[in-house]
Prior knowledge:
By secondary structure, this protein is α/β, with parallel strands linked by helices. It folds into two domains: 3-189, 3-Layer(aba) Sandwich (Rossmann fold), CATH 3.40.50; 196-249. 41% of the residues lie in helices and 9% in strands. It contains twelve helices and five strands. A five-stranded mixed β-sheet has the order 2-1-3-4-5, with helices on both faces. Helix 5 (96-109) crosses helix 8 (148-161). The longest helix has 14 residues, at 96-109. It is globular. 29% of the residues are buried.
Amino acid sequence: MRRLILTTDTSSAGGIGAVGLADFVITLERRLVWGPPLSQAQLDTYFTQRTVQEEGLHWQYHTPAWRLERSGGKDLGLIEFCARYDMVEIWIDPDPNAQLNLIWLLDFLRGHEQLALKINLVQADVGIGGLGLKRLKRRKWPRIPITNDHLEAGGVAWKAWRASTPQAWFDLLAKDLGVLPQFRRSVLELLEELPGRETGLGATELRMLKLLSGRKASPRGLFPGYKLRNKRRVFGYWEVGELLDGLARCPAPASPV
């Protein structure tokens, strides 16, 4: 029985592969919390066979070409690639970007129910890549079969994310999305990153300014991370760096109160 695991983080994929939990592991690591949204045309071809897609706009982009060639599945569409395995699992971290990738994937799979209903979902409550190999291997990972409820919830959430205003995203808080247990927190965290009425700043920027106001924060201490005081987890390292640079280099630089 050949097992394929799809995950949303390179570190997670490396750990899963190193402890032998699958015959092949592939990373779906599109950054959805940062930058302009993909166009509908880009979305339509992202999971298809690789032909003339722009650099970075194909689902195999984050997996080394030599590994894909060794698997025999280089340039295939996601559905065709998954069909080559007896078991398929999706392992998802709890952070907002991973959760956005999950709802995008579930929305895509709504058009491929025959495959989708054979996939198991692992919804981690901790960052998989940060566990270390021993804990990763010892930990019990509940595998939940994907159902129509998952596909429906993913479709509703993805449509809300793609909406032109945040209202539909806010309205998700009133919906029952219990089949995605880590998702509600991500909805809240992403709403908190919207520019505030009084300051025009999001939660990550405000947290960095608060840390600076203590006069003891080092540059490294302003970034989120393990055992660091900034616990905001929406943005990645380089994205937080751009936010910090914007606070310092704008026409009227922000300063701690």
